[in-house]
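User: I'm writing a short methods note and want a consistent example. For Saccharopine dehydrogenase NADP binding domain-containing protein, I'll paste the sequence; you return only the C-alpha cells, no commentary, since I'll be parsing the reply automatically.
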Amino acid sequence: MALVAPRPYQVVVWGASGFTGRLVCEHIARDYHGKIRWAMAGRDPKKLEQVRSELSRINPSVQDVPILTADANDAPAVGAVVRQAEVVLATAGPFARHGDNVVAQAVEQGTHYADITGEVTWVRRSIQRHHTAAASKGVKVLHCCGYDSVPSDMGTFMMVEYCKEKLGCGVTQAFMLVGDGRGGVSGGTLESACNIISQEASSELKRVASDQYYLASLHGLTGSDKPAGILPHYVAPVRTWAGPFVMEGVNAKVVQESNALFTAASYPYGKDFKYYEGVAASGLVGAGLVTAAIVLIGVVIGVPPLRALARRFLPAPGQGPSEAARKGGFWHHELVVVTEEETPRVVRGHCGDRRDPGYWSTSRMLLETGLALVLDAPRLAADPRLARGGVMSPAAACGSVLLERLRAAGFSFDVVGVEGEEKKKDNVTKAAEGAKVAVAK
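Assistant:
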C-alpha cells in the first residue's frame, strides 16, 4: 500500500504562493475547507502568510491553515513536507527546473502526486526515472492535470468509454476541435515554454514533434499515429477545416499514453487508434490563418532576441490574468470519434467550462484530480481498468471517477449523439433478412 494512515494532511498545495497555487487554495477555501485536511507549502513563509491572509476574506477559518516551507532544491526538506500529505498538488514551474525533487520525494515517501506541467520532455524523464518504483509502491504520479491535458485526455476517455459500454465497439479515430474560448496567460506558463526551447536539446525537440508515441512507447505502445503538424487539416467526419492547436504536441501524447496504459489493462481504445487535435476554422483560409499565428509564436519563442523582447512586454512569473478576466473567460471543445465497426458510426460530444481555461479551470482540474486520488481511493481500486500505481495520465489513474468530480465542479463533459444509427439499423435488417432467406433455402 502507498499511504501510511493517518497523515496530518490529505492535501498539500506545493507552490501555494504562485499564481496557480493561490487559485488552488482559493478553491479549497471556498468549497472544501473544513471538509478536508490541507496545508499550504512553498519556499517563502512571508508570501504564504500573505496568501493565507487574503484567503481569509473568502473564509475566515482559513487563517488557521498550516504553512509548510522547503526549498525545492533541498531534497530532505522537500521530503519532510511531502511525507505529511496523502497527495501533493504541485503548481511551481518550470517543472524541469523546480520539480525533480518533489516527484522523487513523493515516490520515496509514498505520497500521491499531481501537477499542471505541460513540459512533455520532463514528463518523459519522469516516467523513465520513477515509473517502476512508483508502481511497486502503489504511488500514483500524475502529470498534465490542468488544461494541459485534462480536456483532451478525459474527453477522449469519455468518448471511448461510451462506445465500448453503450455501442459495444472500440474507436479507430478521435478528434478534439478547439472551439470558441477566451482566457489569459501567466508569466509561469511563458517561462515554462521558454525554458523548454532554450534548455532542451534540438534532437529531443525534433523527436517530440515527430513521435506521437513519445510517452506511450515507454509503456509499451507504438503504432501508425502521427502528430498533427502545422498545416491545415480537413476533418472529414464532421466536414470542417482545422488549424494547429498550440498544445496538441503535449495533449496528443498524453492521450496516447492513456491508450497505452488502458491497453496494458486489456481495455485498448482501438486496434490502431489515432488522435487528432486542432482549432476549428470556418474554412481553409481560416485554418491557414491559425497556422500563420502558430508559426509566428514559434518564431518569437524560438529566436533568443525575440524571446527576450517578448518577456519585457508579457507577464512575469507569478503574474497572470485578473479575477475579472478569469471569471469572464470560457472554453468549448468538440469531441468526435469514429467507431471501430464494419459500418463505422460517428459519435459526437463536447467538453468545456464557463470560466478561464488556463487558470480557473486548470486550478480546479488539478484539485479535483488530487481529491479523486485520496477521497475516492476505494472506487479507483475497484475499477480493474485503472493502474494501481506508476507515472501515468489522469484518465488512466482516475477514469470515470474524475469525470464525475469534474462535472460536479461545473465542467461539461457530455456525449451528445451518434450519427449513422439509421444506416447501421438498415444493414442489420438486411443481414437478418438475408439470414432468413438462407434458412428458407
